[in-house]
Amino acid sequence: MKSLDRKTEIITIAAKLFKEKGYSAVTMRDIAQAMDIKAASLYNHIKSKQEILVLIIIEIAEEFTKVMNEIMLSDETCIQKIEKVIQLHVDITVRDSDALASLNADWMHLADAELAYFIKMREEYEENFRKIIMKGIADGELKKLNPEVIIFSIHTTLRTLYLWYGKKKSLNASVLKSNMTQVLLHGIV
Amino acid sequence: MKSLDRKTEIITIAAKLFKEKGYSAVTMRDIAQAMDIKAASLYNHIKSKQEILVLIIIEIAEEFTKVMNEIMLSDETCIQKIEKVIQLHVDITVRDSDALASLNADWMHLADAELAYFIKMREEYEENFRKIIMKGIADGELKKLNPEVIIFSIHTTLRTLYLWYGKKKSLNASVLKSNMTQVLLHGIV
Q: Any keyword DNA-binding (chains A, B) (predicted)?
């Protein structure tokens, strides 16, 4: 249990450092220093910077994948499914914006197998989101607009939310969720 | 006139190279090579890479500023003003996505006076956009939603459009404009 907590602490501190300085510029020594421990102690808990990156990115990517799969299997309407996707992004952004920053900026530093696994998860996620939108249009739940424009505008807003949220922490999660759902689904007019 | 055309060609080719390799990695020699001329000839038209960057970024920033100022001075409704802002972004994206990529990725490489001028234009632009949204909410033209969420979602969609449009060139400008206006103003439901 103690060791698990220590791992969480390493990941949290490393994600913050990766965001501030970029993955490549951060050393294991920097991470140890930020935790106020010796570099040798750090290696008792974790093998390498690469292992930390895998823990940060793959964990978040698996969470997106798991919740998206649940959404896809549910009997809900397309609109309800989109609402769930928006909630998922807001929840992870509010809880873990440093890790999301690392996922967006540093995923290309993952090594072979993990990189392939990450890209596969991302592609499936995007494919599932596309299916929801296409079905929503086909069933008449969504307006007959160009699906690419819909997918892009919702996706880019949710994907860049962590950049903006870092500066607006005063907004609480439930206010953000309800306003984001209104703006993205029902518009501002 | 001949010289002006040459300058446009330099800017067009340099913006493409900056996008592909990043501003710092591109040399005047690379630009000359891509134009199939000698580096010495390039210097007949332009003093430095920095001068090219200024031409690319400041020209686009001044265009955004000029059109935004016209929009602010007009008697139109807030909704019409937002429509004009969306049109402006789509027009510049469709016409000049390489230059927009350079503006977004390389603005911090501008030297002192131009950097300050660029930041001032950007801040005024964002301030004007905020005024339109705040007035729209105050006048009851827009829904009473959190203005920060509205501003962020529209702004991030328009700002990242060039990244997406590069891959979707098949979409023509007027279809993109009308669909983007629908999605951002009136929603997808």
A: yes
Residues in chain B: 189
Best residue of A77, A132, A133, A149 to probe chain B, by most B CBs closer than 10 Å: A149
- Residue A146's pLDDT band, with cuts at 50, 70 and 90, is very high
Q: Which domain holds residue A128?
A: 49-186
Q: Look at residue A136 and tell me if it is in a domain.
A: yes
Buried b (16+ CB within 10 A) or exposed e, A31-49: bbeebebeeeebeebbeeb
Instruction: Return the pLDDT at A18.
Output: 95
CB contact under 8 A, B171 and A160: no
Q: Using the predicted structure, report yes or no on whether residue A3 has a pLDDT greater than 80.
A: no
Supply the CATH number for residue B91's domain.
Answer: 1.10.357.10
Q: Which of helix, strand or coil describes residue B189?
A: coil
**Nearest-neighbour CA in chain A from B50: distance (Å):** 26
Residue A138 to residue A93: CA distance in whole angstroms = 31
Whether residue B1 lies inside any domain: the answer is no
Between CA B68 and CA B81 the distance in angstroms is 9
Nearest Cα of chain A lies from the Cα of B148 at a distance, in angstroms, of: 9
Residue pair A61/A118 in contact by the 8 Å Cβ criterion = yes
What is the distance between the alpha carbons of residues B187 and A150, in angstroms, rounded to a whole number? 9
Identify the helix (H) or strand (E) that includes residue B129. helix B112-138
Contact A156 B157 (CB under 8 A): yes
- The string of pLDDT tens digits covering residues B159-178 is 999 999 988 777 889 999 99
Residue pairs between chains A and B whose CB atoms are closer than 8 Å: 99
Q: Is residue A37, in this structure, part of any structural domain at all? A: no
Query: How many domains, in total, are found in chain A?
Result: 1
Averaged pLDDT for residues B112-119: 96
pTM of the model: 0.91
Answer whether residue B135 shows pLDDT above 60. Answer: yes
Mean pLDDT of A36-46: 93
- Looking at residue A188, the DSSP 8-state letter turns out to be -
Reported ipTM: the value is 0.90
Is B160's CB within 8 Å of A164's CB?
Answer: no
Does A15 fall in a domain?
no
